[in-house]
Amino acid sequence: MFEVFSRSYYLGRLYVTPTDGEHALMHSEQHERINEEVYATGDGLERLDTPLVMKFESRHFPVHGAANVPTNTLAVPESMLEGTDVRNPPSLREVFLARRDRARQLLDLAGGWQASGDGGSADDLRNAGT
């Protein structure tokens, strides 16, 4: 689904579609698998529900897992799609997935991450590093 793009990002293609929610979402099993492959270090027991950090067009944002999102789909809050050229959703689009070190940098710039996944300061990540 994702391939190496640069030292900081993987490049993938997902169907981008708007959602009414406050967070970007993708299918929970895909989210967990990508989390394990990209963010896990292999040192001991690690959480696999940590948000992924993705970039679509010029915005970075955390992506959570949800069982009700179709596979290969990135559901993005409508407010985050304003100003993009997504015209006929779902639209197959290129998206970037931040590698572990880059994600950590972006989260540091945004003031950290609340591990509970309740949003918190993660909403500030939308424009981090752009």
From TrEMBL:
Protein name (Swiss-Prot/TrEMBL): Uncharacterized protein
Pfam families hit by this protein: DUF5802 (PF19118)
Native source organism of the sequence: Natrinema altunense (strain JCM 12890 / CGMCC 1.3731 / AJ2)
